[in-house]
Amino acid sequence: MYVGKPIKRIEDPKFLTGGSTYVDDIELPGTLFVAFLRSVKPHAKIKIKKNHNGIFTGEDINPGSEFPIPIEETTYVGQPLAMVVGRDRYEAYDLLESIEIEYEELPYVIDPQEALKNDVKVYSKKESNIYEYKKWEAGNVEQSLKEADLVINGELYNQRVIANPLETRGVLAYFDGNRLNVWSSTQSAHYLRRNLINFLGIDNIRVIQPDVGGAFGSKIIAHPEEYAISKLALKLKRPLKWIPTRSEEMQSAGHGRDKRLRFKVGVKRDGTILGIEGTLIADLGAPYPDANDDEIGNVHSTVRMMLGPYRIQNIRIEHYAVNTNKAPTQSYRGAGRPEATYFIERIINIISLELGKDEFDIREKNLIRELPYKNALGITYDTGDYVGLLNKAREYYQRLKNEANVNECVGSSMYVEITAFGPWETARVLAKSDGKITIITGSGPHGQGDGTAFAQIVADVLEVTIENIEVRWGDTDIISDGIGTWGSRTLTIGGSAIYKAAEELRRRLIEVSAKMLNADTEEIEYKNGVLFHKKSGKSVTIKEVIQNAYSMGYSLDVTYVYNVAKPGYTVPYGVHMALVKVDKETGSVRVKKYVALDDVGKVVNPLLAEGQIVGGAVQGIGQAIYEGAIYGKEGYLLNSNLTDYGFPTAVEVPRIEWHYIEKGFSSHPTNSKGIGEAGAIASTPAVINAIEKCTGKRIVNIPPKPEEVI
């Protein structure tokens, strides 16, 4: 059996030996390089003079429309406004200087709270800066606040951060006279293809996802540059490549979070939470439909998951999703769930400090006891043992407290999240004549190690060695359709599709072997890749069956579409804890040790799962004390490079321990739930809660400045 074992990643040898292929590694004869002229104004009317034939604007890409490339009006610094092509990237960037552009500056607004007033319009063609307003309500909030022994008012800001994967976005597009071929650093080849079909009005498009150097949500949506380069490739009939600089990437893509909550919470003296009232302001950045619509889903997730793992029946949240003259926000690892956990777990810590009670006692007082459970805003929590996990976490929490020295405190957070979204996913499992098994997934892994987990699943179903299996994805030519990789869905939903396809392949192998051995299928025993006739004792190997199947009229190429039943997600949960040192003289903060305890159902590969927790935790620690996209009053991103934008390096990363229980199995064939975002969800509030304990000061904005810590 392979499932449940810490198998090393089968994907890694090519990366370790320089055999990987990213977009920029792909060379086609006659390739021209593209550079984009980007706005240097947060809001302005624009006029671009085409003083040579190598300049292309929105009139060429989307005539009569302002999207994806604006024609008349720019709404944020870094927005792509025009394109040039050169024989290499250096010539292309030099040619940008040949573009003459006139800006007629317009009033702009950077602060979403100011944007709400609508005194200044972010975009002149929009009647309001408010993209969406919604009131979420359950129970009787007014009565709950009246009955409370204590009503706590507060404000919390989950700041704007930038995804910053190692590999920037990148596109290579080529029309070969028959169809458009697009190589993109994307999280889903099929999703991008669907968007290009809608935009270009043609369907003969092939999209290839080569190796991808990280994404964290920033490569889900179709970006303006992907649309523009694909359209221009059709026009010029030459291969076109675009790879942005790091500063371009940071100015224009991968921005996430940026939500502010003002709240009231009513509590009893014993720590019982009676009700929460609040206003959530989400900064969507500039109008761009692909990004804004993506982020609205994240806003909804923030509100609906804000109740956490607690029995809170009274809640009223008004949310305002508002446009500003900044880069558009979009999904970033966790996509709304980190903000939800941040808000409720910070509230738990504040209640703990106000009442002088241990935060674990506050949690236990309010914790959901029986599952399944539907929270007041309609989210169904499926399986698990919340109380049992919390009690186990107390042991690790106490150990960390015992390790703490002067000016060191332990913070914690408990999360629930929704993962493994549908509505479906595809898989193709086929047997080759040499006996090898090929897995093709419609999802789009990009560094998580899912290929290894997929191979483990199929190896167990077909009872073959993992070395006998290859895994492929990321090409719309090799599987008919697919969804993609995001929302911690790939292993559970993609893996379940693969599991079911492998089951059908196993059934066919048994059927073929039965005919070969003159037996009924019920008389066949399948064991370790050999098929035995129980009565005669004769046997055939899986390779022999494969070599005979097609001549006997059987296909061993199985495609399966796995549909996800309602509610359409799974709900993992856990408790994360951070031992934090605060230097009261300098205001510096360091996380010394981090302990995570999770229940994500069946852990298919503990090594992969631990890697996801460690990576996510480091990102969340980064958000807590190092990161933040800083805009100046003039509308410029002030830290648009890796020198100015704070990151935790290997020096700052603490010792991280991961522990898990397997109680909350999902109903999917894999029995798993998602784990890819848990670390990023739980770590930020755990760290900030520790800092708040050490300083005795209420923290509103993060990362806290040194003067706020001293």
TrEMBL record:
User: What are the record keywords, sorted?
Assistant: Molybdenum, Oxidoreductase
Q: Which GO terms describe its molecular function?
A: iron ion binding; oxidoreductase activity
Q: Which Pfam families match?
A: Ald_Xan_dh_C, MoCoBD_1, MoCoBD_2
InterPro entries reported in the protein's UniProt record: Ald_Oxase/Xan_DH_a/b, Ald_Oxase/Xan_DH_a/b_sf, Ald_Oxase/xanthine_DH-like, AldOxase/xan_DH_MoCoBD1, AldOxase/xan_DH_MoCoBD2, AldOxase/xan_DH_Mopterin-bd_sf, Glyceraldehyde_dh-related
Q: Which residues form the signal peptide?
A: none
Q: Which residues form the Aldehyde oxidase/xanthine dehydrogenase a/b hammerhead domain?
A: 17-107
Q: PANTHER family attached here?
A: ALDEHYDE OXIDASE 1-RELATED, XANTHINE DEHYDROGENASE
Entry protein name: Carbon-monoxide dehydrogenase (Acceptor)
